[in-house]
Amino acid sequence: MSVGRIVRWVARPRQVETALRFDRDDFDPPVETRLLILQPTPFCNIDCDYCYLPHRSDRSRMSIETVRQAAERLRDDGLAGANLTVVWHAGEPLVAPPAFYEEAFGVLQAALGAHTRVSHSIQTNATLVDDAWCALFKRHAVRIGVSVDGPARLHDAHRRTRAGGGTHALVLRGMERLRAHGIGFHAIAVVTAQTLAEADAFVDFFLEQGVQELGCNFDEAEGAHPVSSLALHEQAHAAFLARLLIRAEQSGGRLRVRELSNAFRLIADASPTYRWRGRSWPDNPQVVPFALISIAANGDFSSFSPELLGQSSLDYQNFVLGNVSQQGFLAAAPTERFRRLWHDVLRGTEACRACCAHFDICGGGAPANKLYENADLSSTETLYCRSMVKRPFDLVLRHLERTHAIAADFSMD
Question: Which residue range is the domain that position 91 belongs to?
Answer without folding.
Answer: 25-331
